[in-house]
């Protein structure tokens, strides 16, 4: 009897251990970037910033050195699971590079696919180290010129102090973020840059798999100070307890002209927002929202986690042109 019970016990133990190992197991926790920018990790149930991942001693064993197997996702799904994170300047421990007078690398996550193709800034791809499916449900891009959603945006703008606006929706995306069988809708609307217009067509894109900003250096497209009536909004439309709710993710609203030389981070310099990617970054089955956000000389990526009707920013990293 005992001889047959032992394997049974072993297989029971395996079954008990497997789910936790599959969900962000401690050996290979998810680490990820977008558009060549390192966003961070999810370790021991917590979001870990790019800087902490690369610098803190407690995450030493999970640091990105280069050479890790990596998956690459386009907006619509997996592109390849045969990529490798490029070593770049990441082949040194933070402490070691500090001794040599160099800062640890915590800005970039470039990858190599085969011998000939490398992906980084400007490629607008999600790169992720992790054994799970990061896009368990597909996001669907809808035609943006939709009367129902225009009214939702107009009502939101009115509630924020901009009345009588005929809003310009630049992205409308349907996706079931949490896998409960009910679709959510993501809306990006803005009147700050006009990608269909003349010179700015070269600079800004709201299309999937393209960066919001095609050139970081001197973008010259987003104003340095706001004019009354400018707006850029990211909204989540979601059914919560049987009611459709409009939940702001990010917003810039100018109800009056801002002074020249305004401070970038006090909300007086216009920011332009885009839904960059929708993916499950921590392997819990619920998809997060990755946004691209540009101001006059900078580009930032942020990760937002959705729980019920709360949208919470959990990670961010970005670049500023000199
Ligand atoms: Ca849902
Ligand atoms: Ca998730």
Summed up:
The protein has 322 residues and is an alpha+beta fold.
Topology:
Layout (H helix, E strand, L loop, with lengths): L1 H21 L8 E4 L2 E7 L2 E4 H6 L13 E6 L2 E9 L8 H6 L11 E3 L3 E3 L6 E4 L10 E2 L5 H13 L9 E7 L8 E7 L40 E10 L2 E11 L18 E8 L8 E8 L2 E10 L2 E11 L2
Antiparallel strand pairs: 1-2, 1-8, 2-3, 4-5, 4-8, 5-6, 6-7, 9-10, 10-11, 11-12, 12-13, 14-15, 15-16, 16-17
The structure holds calcium ion (2 copies).
One calcium ion (CA) binds next to loops.
Give keywords.
single chain, 322 residues, alpha+beta, 2 domains, 8-stranded antiparallel sheet, 5-stranded antiparallel sheet, disordered N terminus, binds calcium ion
The total tally of domains equals 2
The main sheet orders its strands as 3-2-1-8-4-5-6-7
**Beta-strand content bin:** 35-45%
User: How many helices?
Assistant: 4
Kindly provide the radius of gyration, computed on alpha-carbon positions and rounded to a whole number of angstroms: 22 Å
Cα(first) to Cα(last) distance is 74 Å
Calculate the mean pLDDT score and round it: 85
Q: Helix coverage percent of residues?
A: 10-25%
Bound ligands, named by name, code or SMILES: calcium ion
Series of H and E elements: HEEEHEEHEEEEHEEEEEEEE
Sketch the major β-sheet: 8 strands, antiparallel
Low-confidence stretches: 1-26
Global structural class = alpha+beta
The beta-strand count equals 17
